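Board notes (copied after class):
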Amino acid sequence: MVTGSRFLAGGEGYRSSVSRRVGIRIFRALLSAITRQPITDPTSGFRMTTRHGIELFARDYPHDYPEVEAVVMLHHHRLRSAEVPVLMRERAGGRSSIAGHWSAYYMIKVSLAVLVGLFRARPAIDPGDSAPVAAEHAI
């Protein structure tokens, strides 16, 4: 999977709020420790993946907090990931669902989801099989 990282673009582009940047730094540290590789933009939804990644996500995609949890899934299934620089612009319309007091709630929920994701069985992807198969794993 390739993720577009706003933090590799040399400081150009839209800068989010201070509280959001703090949250991103916390998830960056957590996911970098889990995957043992640098993750600079764990909340970016700008992603591209191979057929194998699409098959994996089609069977078991995180619903509540997909950006952060998907990184843990890729690591668990030993799929490679990389980040490329992208410029992101400020939201053109609407409001973020993670603002004000909801940001603390989001941080707690995502952190718990990541911890649960580390220990739960996930379906193994067998390209010749149409049904998920439970996979044992160790991280």
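Comment from the instructor: The longest strand covers residues 2-5. The helical segments are 18-35, 51-59, 66-76, 102-119.
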